Amino acid sequence: MTRRRSTSRFYRWSRPIMGTIALLGALETTVLTVVKLTNNIAAICPTEGCDRVLTSPYATAFGLPLTVFGFLGYAAMTVFAFAPYSFDPEDNRRRRDRIERTTGWALLVGGAAMAAFSGYLTYVLVSELHEFCPYCFASALFSFGLFGLAVFGRDWEDAGRPLFASALVAIATLVGATGLYADISPSVAATPESVSETKQAPRAVTTESGTAEIELARHLREIGARTFGAYWCPHCYSQKQLFGREAFEIVEYVECDPRGANAKPEVCRRAGVRAYPTWEINGQLYEGVRELDELAELSGYSGNTAFRHSLRSVM
Q: What's the rounded Cα separation, in Å, for the pair 238 and 40?
């Protein structure tokens, strides 16, 4: 009797727990999305590795921060978890039971997909990026927690069905994730033959350069400095906007995505590029968007520093 009562209590509380976890995940991804879009990732990262991970190619999908899709997933799981509580069990018991069954499967499918994708990204984090990102591991814990509760937090009539469905969803998610990032990571860069077929052009720079920007760009060119990026990368575009159209044409820019115009992914790979944008100045790599004042200091530039633009003005 005691065991049955404790099991029933676990089922009763599984949905509120899932909803709480999903809300925490939605809050985390909201904060990460805001700081990524405003180029303030370094402000919330306790370690340099965290900054590198959140600005790496794996942190973007379809030209948007990956956290946007994470937020949508957590938001959907929140709705699925709390949906049955919008009906009074005494007034409409049958309808509530139907909603519980439907959202139970939705929680299972969503949890399996999120857990599989988080597992893939965790593997990449450990095996390829070799960095520690507390937000990434927190999101992985949220995802696996949601999946575990979706499986064991309900009394399934046939335990084999949810396990089989979860396996199918996980396999499909892993195949999709592998395809999504196959061409983005510099470590799996395409050969020169495939690169020559790509034609994706970056966004046009719209800001105008001043004398100081042009002089800094010439200095960077003279000392052999270069910047690595990708045509779809919003942070790379912000860096270009800081220089302005005329000055950035002087800067040596290397396109890392094999689908981009004039791409040189093998050069990025040899240079050890792991995040976009990355500056190479005097043999040292500096990841992330850099204010022009900082680039001047890093490169030993001592000329005109009356720069027109700042990150605040180009966002």
A: 12
Beta strands in the chain (DSSP E): 60-61, 64-65, 226-229, 252-255, 278-281, 284-287
C-alpha span between 13 and 9 (Å, rounded): 6
CB atoms within 10 A of CB 198: 19
Cα separation, 267 vs 226, in Å, equals: 11
pTM of structure? 0.64
Closest CA to 256 of 314, 202, 180: 202
Neighbours of 90 (CB within 10 A): 7
Measured between alpha carbons, how far is residue 3 from residues 9, 14, 108 in Å?
10, 16, 25
- Give residue-wise pLDDT tens across range 149-207: 999 988 888 878 899 999 999 999 999 999 888 765 444 333 333 434 546 888 899 99
- Say if residue 46's pLDDT is above 50: yes
Provide mean pLDDT across the span 209-225.
96
Domains of the chain are: 2-182 (1.20.1440.130), 211-314 (3.40.30.10)
Closest CA to 260 of 202, 192, 304, 211: 202
Closest CA to 279 of 309, 313, 252, 241: 252
According to DSSP, residue 45 is labeled: -
Provide CB contacts within 8 A for 124, sequence distance 6+: 58, 181
